[in-house]
Amino acid sequence: MGILWSKVKESRERKKVLSKVGPTTHFARHEAEYWMKIFYQDVPNGKLSEAEFVEYFGNFYTSADDGSKTTLARQIFKAFDRNNNGHVSLREYLHGMSTLLRGNTLEKLEWAFILFDVDGDGLVSKEDMGGVLMLYNDLRTNKEGGISEEQLAAIIDHEFPLIDRTGKGRLGKRQFIEGVSRSHRLLEIMPIR
Ligand SMILES: [Ca+2]
Ligand SMILES: [Ca+2]
């Protein structure tokens, strides 16, 4: 009886979260329910840790080397973990997936800003941008035909100064979002498509 009751309680709790969070995403009710099921299949305790996420991510992408996969996975985890408490909750997971799958360009770039700010100082430097794009390109190379490192570096060398109008070498959030959204060449290689 004890176990059964705790299961019923758990399921009620989940539905409560879903009815609160679902409407704040781009998902229809049945889609939010689908993603909730996926989440709890992998994370029964409802708290996805960074280590777990890095492991799932590593199993999913078999092409790139382990070091670059781990670095990128950590950054993606950070972008999901909005309140920065070290785990991704159902709420954060649904919001992240909704942004990635259904968000408009501005929403996706807001998400990408966290991904790109590797040292977490609230600014994206040219090195931050180059680093993350290299990692992502590395993952794509075997799967969907990424571009060469030289091509990638040339795009960043050309596009970054156009966005960095003050010439400080670092972009604030607004500057990053506005600038990248105007750059077709950068949008094409961003991990938000
Ligand atoms: Ca969190
Ligand atoms: Ca930074």
Automatic annotation (TrEMBL):
Q: Which organism is it from?
A: Branchiostoma floridae (Florida lancelet)
Encoding gene, per UniProt annotation: LOC118412508
Q: Which CDD domains does this one have?
A: EFh (cd00051)
SUPFAM superfamilies from the xrefs?
A: EF-hand (SSF47473)
Q: Where is the EF-hand domain?
A: 68-103, 104-139
Family of the protein in this entry: Belongs to the recoverin family.
Q: What are the recorded GO MF terms, alphabetically?
A: calcium ion binding
Source superkingdom? Eukaryota
Query: What protein name applies here?
Result: Frequenin-1-like
Q: One GO BP annotation here?
A: regulation of signal transduction
Instruction: Give yes or no: UniProt keyword Ribosomal protein.
Output: no
Keywords in alphabetical order, please. Calcium, Lipoprotein, Metal-binding, Myristate, Repeat
Asked if the keyword Lipoprotein belongs to this entry, the reply reads yes
Q: What Pfam families would the database entry show?
A: EF-hand_5, EF-hand_8
PANTHER family hit by this protein: CALCIUM BINDING PROTEINS (PTHR23055), NEUROCALCIN HOMOLOG (PTHR23055:SF178)
Q: Which InterPro entries does the entry link to?
A: EF-hand-dom_pair, EF_Hand_1_Ca_BS, EF_hand_dom, Recoverin
Q: Which residues cross the membrane?
A: none
